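#random but structural
TW: two for the price of one
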Amino acid sequence: MLTGATAREATNAGAASALSWLCLLFAAPAAQAQALAQALDPQASAAEPDKSWAVPAAEIVAFDFLLSRYNRRFSGLSDYNVTTGSMRRNLRGPWVTDNDPFKVNQFAHPYQGSLYHAAGRSSGLNYWEASALTFAGSAWWEITGEKTPPSRNDQIASGIAGSFLGEPLYRMAHMVLRGRSIVPAAWRETLAALISPSVGLNRLLFGSGAAFDDHDPAYYGRMHIGATHVTRHAFDTSAEFKTNMVQADFLLDYGLPGKPDYTYRRPFDYFTFQALFSSANGVEQLSTRGMLYGTDYAVTDSYRGIWGLYANYDYLAPQIFHISTTSLSLGTTGQWWATKSIAVQGTAQAGMGYTAVSSTTRSLGDDSEYHYGTAARFAVALRVIVGDRASADVSARLVTVGRIGNRIAGRDDIARVDTNFTYRLVGRHAIGANHLWSHRSASYPVAGQRRQTLSTVGVYYTLLSSDGFGAPDWRMGAAH
């Protein structure tokens, strides 16, 4: 059983990404695909799907079929020996909560859902239409992709978190395609396809694809690449623990408040996306927060912001624990010009979500420390920008699991604080320093009390998205 789970984790963690490109390999030639799309939806253009439900639905069904066949061939498990009988059983239910490997449930499934979402968006569907299609596509996989009972936690991860992740990836792909990056023109199509494979697939099949107007948002992006060292590890170590790592940390703030004439009428007209990759454990962090519904405001001539309902997806996997949360929060994001050259940006959120937690150290890694539950989530972020020369950032989040529901399974209180200082040298080139603190306090009926803390410091080369730090200056009608 342990061997099968391990094999499944190794196979499925990369299968969602690999199968997106298998779809390209096995797809019909472009002319045949266009004819098929027009036959499925006579209202769709033969040249490109301005808006089509049939095209993304067919792509999702084909993707799920290929993914299930791929896993049946290479995973070594019987879970994918799907029959019409297993489909009928799954259709009748019941839906269960499974404890599949954490990276499969909380990373691979949301990524799979993001492919569904982008398939709809690149076929002309709006955010809510694509989200409905993503939810349906996830249910289709649960019923037809595996013979095991359908999982409610997978449905949340793929069907809801998939849209919370898919929309930022879709918009970032379009930023690259429209030349709003430092990527050379010859590489834009390739990079956009890597960011959102569904966008790349539909552009291959239908040319330019459905048009998307991003309304020219103000944004700030940066990439840290450097070395990190563990300065504190208050927990039971394991053989896999590493004290020195190489990390790459990408951050994008999209739709920063204060830009003249920019509006927030559509979901994710404002969002923040962060991905942290580590040589110690692969993907250590994947987080998005985007405003689903809200509006902008102006308190004074120097302070403007937005407020409303935010959608959040967080995947955190330092070497001591794993936690993933899909949540809704009430919050606000604002910017204050404290002086002519100093800007302060901040976000505050409080909300509820569905959370999964597990331990990663060997001495704590039994099934009793892997559970799901309703969780409260709190987050704050603050950035101080000094002209076009330097910025100091701090972000903190707190998630409490097991205090609201499912208390019998155990309790987890998890906090993470990320502090960065960046100094611009010349143009888009900068250097940075980082301190990252992760803490977990847990109590389980079987394992008892647990406290785990991990602190790291890092030094980075930083590549900025512009010659400044992206502070919209409505006084000048531009961004610094």
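TW: number two ↓
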Amino acid sequence: MTRLLDVLDEPATLAPAPAPALRVPDPASERVALRGVSFAYPGREATVRRDVDHTLDPGRVTAVVGPSGSGKSTLAALVLRLADPADGTVTCGEVDLRGVDPDAWRAQVAWVPQRPRVFAGTLADNVRLGVPRATDEDVAVALAAACLSALVDVLPAGVRTAVGEGGHPLSAGEAQRLALARAFVRPASLLVVDEPTAHLDPETARGVIDALARLADGRTVLVLTHDPAVVELADTVVAMRDGHLEKPSLPAAEALVA
């Protein structure tokens, strides 16, 4: 516990801004661009991402494929501004994100992690996690869009049914769709999704993919995946190899998600 408190007391690792931004850029209408980005974890000499260049176009879906440990999650952290590059820039509409207040940037972003956290409380509380003022109607619409209406109908108290820390009694697929419902209820124009169908059976994965397709409509999306069915949703497919991004040929892309 003492060590945990020491870690919590450490200052944030985000780099100082070159200059405060005059505005908060909007990923709904402006490109998010990584230019010459390199990244290394604090305290480690090795650079894990080198000279990454890529652009996320507004309203388009980009799928990043590649083996585990290739750096896909680090890429997501840079776009979410949970980390800053050691070299290069991450911009939106030519605005360097290091100059943008992190909370203001993240207010426009929805993050669906590979293993979403479910907290003790009601199902509705968990959907409202990032939007406490969401109405009951907002919650119901989000749950329906995430293909969870059937679950709500059989729960003893509907959306007011209590769930335990970690999600009990929800299955892994239901927890994943709950995370998608959180994103549906959040007015975010940039969506970052990490392995949405990992560890799910084919039928459950299909439901998650259908929900993701609806969620992606009209949003800028970065999805990290090994799943060929998820890749089919993408307008652009790029591969992460040894810390670099590249646009693979179709056979190479299929090999990376096999």
